[in-house]
Amino acid sequence: MLRQFGASQVALFLACVHAVTVLSGCASYRIGNETLYAPDIVTVYVPMIQSDSFRRDLGERLTEAVVKEIELKTPFKVVGTPDADSVLSIHLARDTNRVTIENPNDDPRSIELNLAAQVTWLNRRRVPLQPISAVPLPPELLPISQTGTLITAVGQSVASAQQLAIQRLAERIVATMEESW
């Protein structure tokens, strides 16, 4: 069938087929972890996290953990300027300790550390990027929280338990940056 057409007509036909294939979306297919994140966001600015806690350096430690987690698990690049494609603002709203196990002399043997943060992720136009939930959540469920357990009987320190809670909270915060399916 192609013998009755000239070489220029065949080339034109193949160019049209190629153009239709490219325009139909085949060329924009994404693979890997990039499919989980917004394709129009490249850079993220993470300002220093403000903390309502009286414990020193929790905001700074959480900021460092969140930045490392973004760089490790997302295709985004963290930058030091608010001119980025998006701004991830976090407020450490609560830091509580609760004794879960005591010995007969009322000495704490296991303490649960709980950190709660309020997260806002805005794009350059200050429009929220996090997906809007189909099921409305009550305000008390909106903060993201995470716990770490301090077991004094095995020689664990408060700093190591806090760092565990900070790391887990950073992982949960970065997980909210994924697009909904």
From TrEMBL:
GO terms under cellular component: outer membrane
A Gene Ontology biological process in which this protein takes part is:
Gram-negative-bacterium-type cell outer membrane assembly
Show the Pfam families listed in the entry.
LptE
Q: Per its UniProt record, what InterPro entries does this chain match?
A: LPS_assembly_LptE
Q: What is this protein called?
A: LPS-assembly lipoprotein LptE
Organism this protein belongs to = Adhaeretor mobilis
